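Usage example:
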Amino acid sequence: MGDMTTTPASAPAPAPAPKQDRSRATRRRLLEAAVACLAERGWQGSTVSVVAERAGVSRGAAQHHFRTREDLFLAAVEYVAEERSQALRALDGRSRAEVVEALVALYTGPLFRAALHLWVAASDEPQLRPRVTELEARVGREAHRMAVELLGADESVPGVRETVQGLLDMARGLGLATLLTDDAPRRARVVAQWSRLLDGALG
Amino acid sequence: MGDMTTTPASAPAPAPAPKQDRSRATRRRLLEAAVACLAERGWQGSTVSVVAERAGVSRGAAQHHFRTREDLFLAAVEYVAEERSQALRALDGRSRAEVVEALVALYTGPLFRAALHLWVAASDEPQLRPRVTELEARVGREAHRMAVELLGADESVPGVRETVQGLLDMARGLGLATLLTDDAPRRARVVAQWSRLLDGALG
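Running the assembly step on the lines above writes:
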């Protein structure tokens, strides 16, 4: 999904073709609209038409980019997960408490809400399930990798891998709790306490 | 919902009226069928008719017990949560690791799956949302109370309350992870490690 064109190091970067630019911008608008739609309306309420309208794109153009509804929503969740992952990288060098807070924030925003709707729909829809399972595993591995790096965790020490996994499971559980009630003050207290436990466990 | 009749201690227990018995048994069958149905088919696929058929009860009889679809499914999730809470009480006196395992198991079975479908549906349906939010808060408070008791946690010590809350959030997150992939071996390793950390934190 990245830019696959290669440019010789010595050549000046060519001016991007305006048409290709427009196509990329349309694709991005569709992906962002798809995540917002899924987060707000759930799977049942999220159709290609609804997303196209929200993105200000014709239904035909949307189908040019994404052949099926499943293609659109899987790409959307993956796209936003990659954006968030980029944002996490900027935290390198911050304190452990700040990193834990940022990791928990990953699971309490619209992306998590959108992903949750997709997971729940996938658990009942056989044609969606294997693709969502694969995507979720990939996004989960990336989150774990980032967490280990940012927390400065040494996974060669017994128990450290499971400590980090448990932390991400807790973040996911906190995200679920915010689905119905936004309990930010409670969440902040739990995060502060578990950051302390984590400090003890990671040394 | 409990048995509200009172019997003087000295009198022999009266034989229960068969009609009342049948009515209670029907109600229980409907509640159990509703949870199973919600866990397997999700909110969209769970109608009163589907549940009545599964319970072997006429649609009219189902509506005699539960006036609306919302009434049926809220009562079902509450009923099963109470059953699980009763089962937890039997763990009194077990080791901390066993208690943590049992608490996590609360969030990885069909009850959690059913509740999750109800939460996700409620997050999009204004008429369902306040009732599910209230039920979830009540069930959550009870789970916290039981966890504190069974873990022998002293909440007057700073941080202990948040430690137990974080543990239940982690259990919820582990339950969410099992929605698509059943990762029981990973779960067991995370639970074992966090039981050790918990031992350190609770003293």
